[in-house]
Amino acid sequence: MRAGHEGTGPGAITPDGCAVELYARLPAGDEPDIIERAVPAGARILELGCGVGRVTHPLVQRGFTVTAVDESAEMLERVKGAHTVRSAIESLDLGERFDVVMLASFLVHASDPQMRQDLLLACRRHVEDDGCVLIQREGEGHDWHEDVPRERPLGDDGLVRVLSSVPAGPGVQNVQVEYVFPDARWTQTFLSHPLTTPEFEQALLEAGLAVDAYLTDDRTWVRAEPVADQP
């Protein structure tokens, strides 16, 4: 288990505290629609941190060719219809480039700035010069770390609660989340480094990327493009 991360509940728990059985229940939501609108039809997509294929499967069904990367063998066992690669994202080097690289699940908010840069460099390393990188970040419009506790429905019969978010070091928050279903309950504790928009855009530039467009009103989903003359 990674420092500052923990998970409880039925089934396997990954090093960052994610429960495999829980993620197999989570709905895809509107994320496949956002992605489909942002990229060319039939694009070759590299999905970093694919989990059980919650988003992978809808993308494959829509005609995209997906290479799905995750460090958890238990997660990858659930992925169907995509080429799977077991690897940590930060050290990934497939020796090929893709039309689209996805870094979802708020991974860009890694608590260690070096880890964040390594994740973004992996995106840059694998995207075609005329391709794009899709990133999911903490949105704008309310304070994700002060508007707690809060809860919302999850699928047809679930509930997700953000129980707390407390300081855990310079710029870092320790976040506790609970997922409740009629027959099971999971918790996850993880570290998050909030980023202002200028901080986020600067991190992209340092990795050879630049914002092309914010794809949602709350700026949660971002399309970035490679910066010329960058590695």
Walk me through the structure:
The chain is α/β, with parallel strands linked by helices. The chain is 20% helix and 35% strand. The chain has six helices and twelve strands. It has a seven-stranded mixed β-sheet with strand order 4-3-2-5-6-12-11, sandwiched between helices. Strands 1-10-9-8-7 form a five-stranded antiparallel β-sheet, with no helix packed on it. The longest helix is centred in the middle third of the chain and has 14 residues, at 113-126. The protein is globular, with a radius of gyration of 17 Å.
SSE diagram, text form:
Elements lengths: L5 E3 L11 H4 L7 H8 L5 E5 L7 H6 L3 E6 L2 H4 L6 E4 L11 E6 L9 H14 E10 L13 E5 L3 E12 L2 E10 L2 E9 L4 H10 L2 E6 L6 E6 L5
Parallel strand pairs: 2-3, 2-5, 3-4, 5-6
Antiparallel strand pairs: 1-10, 6-12, 7-8, 8-9, 9-10, 11-12
